[in-house]
Amino acid sequence: MKWLLILSAGLYLFGAFRRPFFAAGLAAGAAYLAVRGIELGRLPLVGPHDTLAFFSVSIGLMALPFLLSPALRQQSFFSWGMGCAAALFGLMALLFPAFAMPLPPVLRTLWFELHVALAFFSYALFAIGAVLGGIFLAGGERRILDLQYRAALVGYTFFSASMVSGGIWGYFAWGTYWLWTPKEFWTSILWIFYTFWLHLRLRGTGGDKALAWSGIVGFAVALFTYLGVSILMKSSHSF
């Protein structure tokens, strides 16, 4: 059923020009996750293949309300940027094998699934914030910066909830709420980064361009937390 991921990526790319195709790309990606979930008997959230596919769908899902925003209806760069991002991660998933191994006991809990799903929703919103930051830098429209703030705020809320659910899962799995492995360390860096970013934005201090750039940097930190740490460092998190 991997052809659904290829179809999803193609539709996302066409969605850069015709937004109904973007919604169709999201539907195809969600259908792939549903098929995987039925095959596995659980949410497909373990390993690089499944998490990249889930990330692709998360980007499409989180971007859909922004695509319907009046402020972005004339912004073709936003639909192009989000379509390319969702397609990229969907195609990246095809580079890795789709494992069908049973879950170890420590992962058989709702807290684990909630932790991972919320984390990817937040990553998707941080990606949206980065694209909106680029649009603001190119055009200078203040309302775009306001949308970037909203995306980051909701993403921050999801990420905070992901950390809480991850702590509860960690307590049941290892008897502690927090382990200072590289993944947890970079998770804390990402959370602190957006805490300060949102604080500065709320207080109105700092230049608009600096805030826009910081939103782009924040997504780079999120990507390293997700992919960089998993590939380059040993951690309790495989991905």
Automatic annotation (TrEMBL):
Subcellular location: Membrane
Pfam family, one: Cytochrom_C_asm
A GO molecular function held by the record: heme binding
Gene Ontology CC: plasma membrane
Topology term for the membrane: Multi-pass membrane protein
Swiss-Prot/TrEMBL keywords: Cytochrome c-type biogenesis, Membrane, Transmembrane, Transmembrane helix
Occurrences of domain Cytochrome c assembly protein (ranges): 57-234
Source species, domain of life: Bacteria
InterPro entries given in the database record: Cyt_c_assembly, Cyt_c_biogenesis_CcsA/CcmC
Segments crossing the lipid bilayer: 51-68, 80-100, 120-139, 151-172, 184-200, 212-233
Identification of the protein by name: ResC/HemX-like cytochrome c
Organism annotation: Geobacter metallireducens (strain ATCC 53774 / DSM 7210 / GS-15)
